[in-house]
């Protein structure tokens, strides 16, 4: 099934980006191993947790996804991730292979900026103490803006002349320049609407162009700030400072190393842990709760027990989770993603082979305001669609909007209209 949109992970060296990426792709529901390097960008599959439609219809026991997994109505849906190697200040000028890395970002629909809030790494990722990580938030956005603005200003004279000569409107001219960043005419129209510019494009000042680029960057690259290493003693003051400067909806507190540690222990059968959860249970915990076998978990030495207790106190009980799973969820919220469930039969929700009682085998993620026709194209490609049925067998129109709980269970009937 299609796995776009694409979420890019960015951050300076030693911010914990690779650890975050590995934890996002190393879910219990994973379908493969995805090795990474730090030189060239890598595509990988992460897992976004969503409420599954199976819970809505009380058929969770028969929900068997083709990809990912579903546990008690909480579904892990594959989503494509892009690992962009560590950026450094001056990337827009080519420092640290910056132009190549920035160029890779243009494919992303949203960004996750992993920020080291411990203050123990400087702007280039070198060990230090007392660094202000709010600077990292500012410079990354600045690098993207200056890169786009620099590319635009190099050609601005010829852009204006052509704009006047062919009597184009501002949307057409800017889309011609920004299409390489994955923009659409709708994106440009939203940018111009937000700014309310009345001056003709050929008379725009440098300040106006900078405004346009800034607004375009916010529109095209919605960014989650994954404030990492929250268990460090210096993290609190840095988190507080960043929280005062940024939209709280863009911030997620996380400890990627804690998530990786817990998942490793769970695989080794030392603890019972579900990714993204507030709780982790040891053998002793389960015995106390009435299970004489301790869930079949292994015994741990005192050192390992103490590490888990510290992690509970410093991360899980204090923040509610390690935050890693929530990072992808927040990116999904910024994009307004809607999970849609294509099925063969809208009465039984089956989509597999005849005789199988498995339901909701597939799930695709589409952007907000997508239509039934958009979903059909994503799922069926160029196959002709005679008509489409929604939940309960009702016919839905190709221009109907899909949303959670509305037109999100669809059966496409192939054939000529």
Automatic annotation (TrEMBL):
<dbReference type="InterPro" id="IPR013646">
    <property type="entry name" value="YGR210-like_G4"/>
</dbReference>
<keyword id="KW-0342">GTP-binding</keyword>
<dbReference type="InterPro" id="IPR031167">
    <property type="entry name" value="G_OBG"/>
</dbReference>
<protein>
    <submittedName>
        <fullName>GTP-binding protein</fullName>
    </submittedName>
</protein>
<feature type="domain" description="OBG-type G">
    <location>
        <begin position="5"/>
        <end position="274"/>
    </location>
</feature>
<dbReference type="Pfam" id="PF08438">
    <property type="entry name" value="YGR210-like_G4"/>
</dbReference>
<dbReference type="Pfam" id="PF01926">
    <property type="entry name" value="MMR_HSR1"/>
</dbReference>
<dbReference type="InterPro" id="IPR006073">
    <property type="entry name" value="GTP-bd"/>
</dbReference>
<dbReference type="InterPro" id="IPR012675">
    <property type="entry name" value="Beta-grasp_dom_sf"/>
</dbReference>
<dbReference type="InterPro" id="IPR027417">
    <property type="entry name" value="P-loop_NTPase"/>
</dbReference>
<keyword id="KW-0547">Nucleotide-binding</keyword>
<dbReference type="GO" id="GO:0005525">
    <property type="term" value="F:GTP binding"/>
</dbReference>
<dbReference type="GO" id="GO:0016887">
    <property type="term" value="F:ATP hydrolysis activity"/>
</dbReference>
<dbReference type="GO" id="GO:0005737">
    <property type="term" value="C:cytoplasm"/>
</dbReference>
């Amino acid at each position: 099934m299609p796995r776009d949109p694409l979420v890019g992970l960015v951050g300076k060296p030693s911010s914990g980006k690779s650890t975050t990426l590995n934890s996002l792709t190393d879910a219990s529901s994973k379908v493969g191993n995805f090795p990474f390097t730090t030189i060239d960008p890598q595509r990988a599959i992460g897992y976004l947790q969503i409420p599954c439609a199976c819970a809505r219809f009380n058929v969770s026991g028969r929900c068997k996804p083709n990809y990912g997994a579903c546990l008690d109505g909480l579904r892990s849906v594959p989503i494509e991730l892009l690992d962009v190697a560590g950026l450094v200040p001056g990337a827009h000028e080519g420092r640290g292979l910056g132009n190549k890395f920035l160029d890779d970002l243009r494919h992303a629909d949203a960004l996750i900026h992993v920020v080291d809030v411990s203050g123990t790494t400087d702007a280039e990722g070198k060990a230090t103490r007392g660094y202000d990580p709010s600077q990292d938030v500012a410079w990354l956005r600045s690098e993207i803006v200056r890169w786009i603005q620099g590319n635009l200003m190099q050609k601005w004279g010829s852009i204006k002349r052509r704009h006047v000569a062919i009597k184009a409107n501002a949307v057409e001219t800017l889309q011609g320049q920004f299409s390489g960043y994955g923009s659409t005419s709708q994106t440009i129209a939203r940018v111009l609407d937000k700014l309310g510019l009345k001056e003709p494009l050929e008379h725009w000042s440098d300040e106006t162009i900078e405004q346009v680029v800034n607004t375009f960057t916010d529109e095209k690259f919605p960014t989650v700030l994954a404030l990492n290493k929250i268990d460090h003693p210096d993290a609190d003051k840095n988190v507080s400072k960043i929280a005062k400067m940024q939209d709280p909806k863009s911030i997620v507190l996380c400890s990627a190393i804690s998530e990786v540690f817990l998942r490793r222990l769970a695989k080794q059968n030392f603890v019972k842990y579900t990714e993204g959860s507030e709780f982790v249970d040891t053998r002793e915990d389960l015995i106390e709760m009435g299970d004489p076998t301790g869930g079949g978990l292994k015994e741990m030495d005192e050192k390992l027990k103490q590490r888990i207790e510290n992690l509970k106190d410093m991360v899980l009980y204090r923040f509610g989770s390690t935050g890693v799973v929530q990072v992808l969820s927040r990116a999904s919220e910024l994009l307004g993603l809607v999970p849609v469930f294509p099925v063969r039969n809208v009465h039984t929700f089956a989509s597999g082979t005849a005789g199988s009682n498995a339901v909701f085998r597939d799930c695709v993620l589409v952007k907000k305001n997508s239509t039934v026709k958009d979903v059909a194209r994503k799922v069926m490609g160029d196959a002709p669609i005679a008509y489409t049925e929604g939940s309960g067998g009702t016919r839905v129109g190709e221009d109907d909007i899909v949303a959670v709980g509305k037109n999100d269970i669809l059966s496409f009937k192939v054939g000529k209209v």
